[in-house]
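Design a sequence for this backbone.
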């Protein structure tokens, strides 16, 4: 594990340079950057347990522990913060409603274990098999359907206080276009603050739980329940989340490699293993599943500081914050209207990320295989299809993901056998200039 060496004078980063993972600024500057990473991750990380009903302090604790474990497993060579993954919201919400929190935690553990297994395979066999299993049209469909499947949840909260929801939603959108850089990236967090203040003004807040909570204390722990007969029926709906976590982790590694050097790509397998271990531990004891955070990529891009030292500071800070039940109680007072407004934007953005995968990879939607891969998966998710055999039920997320995989691979095989031209012919060729004024 590399020991950090001081970058330059320890205070500034020269134009065109970055602070590499094995470097650091002075400790005061490093601590400041680490705290900035906590602020960046906080808005999204606390929002997931608030939406799923999990304890906020417990999620903060395991995000901090998970981050430190990630740094150890990747041998201190890959800067990353592990925050709550939005991909878990839909299956956790469904599993908690039908079988309870213990079964939902078991689903998170199952995802973590499977992600570790995938990481081990990637470490020894490379990433090629993932690209073949989950090409862009399939990957985009699975990411998009997870977001769009949550639309009814957003509406349920929104309609409880539509004025507050509208104020919150407008604030999120306004901040995203009003500010540039770091403030623009935390527009959801800022929108929640505006919505919360508005809800306080109109009398929608209940502070009784805050008054009763102590300033210092251990988080609330819950154990995963594998013994309940209903647990195994809900685990299946968690499995597509593995594909999302793979895409997020691989994208994170490639993003860091672009700025710091191609050698970082060698940590891809370890990154998947580390996120899997962190998710498994979090799920075992009552925390939300984790993933590498794009918000913190934004901080690194803005500061040009890719030092892993800053993430040790961020992880330790999150652990310290988790030891205050009063902080967790504050976040639990966020009313339904605020949650409805912010999730209207947030869940839609998850869907748009999937569509962006299609756009970035120039998926050819003139091909029937690609058309039906996306079309069927999204309708299944938005409508909330389910299939049930006795006590065993498959929800819309697993059905949509399975449909995307089957339609793509079986459809391609038939189209290529018959030479009908309906198969995926690869990315569309670039014709002319993409955006901007004509040259």
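Sequence:
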């Amino acid at each position: 594990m590399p020991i950090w060496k001081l970058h330059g004078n320890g205070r500034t980063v020269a134009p065109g340079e970055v602070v590499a993972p094995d470097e650091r600024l002075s400790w005061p500057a490093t601590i400041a950057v680490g705290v900035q990473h906590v602020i960046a991750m906080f808005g999204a990380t606390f929002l997931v347990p608030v939406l799923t009903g999990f304890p906020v302090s417990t999620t903060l604790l395991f995000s901090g522990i998970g981050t430190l474990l990630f740094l150890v497993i990747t041998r201190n060579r890959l800067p990353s913060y592990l925050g709550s993954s939005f991909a878990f919201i839909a299956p956790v919400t469904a599993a908690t409603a039908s079988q309870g929190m213990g079964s939902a935690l078991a689903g998170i553990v199952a995802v973590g274990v499977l992600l570790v297994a995938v990481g081990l395979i990637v470490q020894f066999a490379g990433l090629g098999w993932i690209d073949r299993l989950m090409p862009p049209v399939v990957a985009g469909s699975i990411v998009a359907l997870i977001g769009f499947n949550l639309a009814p949840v957003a509406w349920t909260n929104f309609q409880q206080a539509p004025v507050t929801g509208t104020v919150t939603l407008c604030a999120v959108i306004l901040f995203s276009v009003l500010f540039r850089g770091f403030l623009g990236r935390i527009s959801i967090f800022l929108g929640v603050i505006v919505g919360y203040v508005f809800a306080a003004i109109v009398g929608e807040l209940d502070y009784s739980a805050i008054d009763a909570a102590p300033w210092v204390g251990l988080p609330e722990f819950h154990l995963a329940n594998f013994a309940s007969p209903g647990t195994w029926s809900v685990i299946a709906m968690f499995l597509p989340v593995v594909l999302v976590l793979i895409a997020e982790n691989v994208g994170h590694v490639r993003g860091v490699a672009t700025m710091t050097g191609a050698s970082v790509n060698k940590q891809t397998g370890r990154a998947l293993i580390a996120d899997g271990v962190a998710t498994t531990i979090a799920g075992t004891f009552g925390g939300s599943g984790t993933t590498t955070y794009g918000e913190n990529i934004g901080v690194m891009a803005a500061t040009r500081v890719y030092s892993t030292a800053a993430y040790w500071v961020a992880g330790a800070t999150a652990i310290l914050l988790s030891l205050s039940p009063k902080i967790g109680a504050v976040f639990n007072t966020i009313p339904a209207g605020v949650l409805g407004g912010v999730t209207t934007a947030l869940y839609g953005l998850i869907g748009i990320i999937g569509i962006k995968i299609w756009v970035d990879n120039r998926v050819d939607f003139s091909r029937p295989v690609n058309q039906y891969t996306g079309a069927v998966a999204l309708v299944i998710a938005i409508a909330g299809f389910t299939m049930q055999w006795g006590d065993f039920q498959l929800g819309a997320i697993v059905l949509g993901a399975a449909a995307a995989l089957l339609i793509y691979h079986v459809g391609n095989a038939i189209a290529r056998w018959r030479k009908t031209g309906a198969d995926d012919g690869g990315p569309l060729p670039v014709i002319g200039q993409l955006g901007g004024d004509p040259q």
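The radius of gyration is 22 Å.
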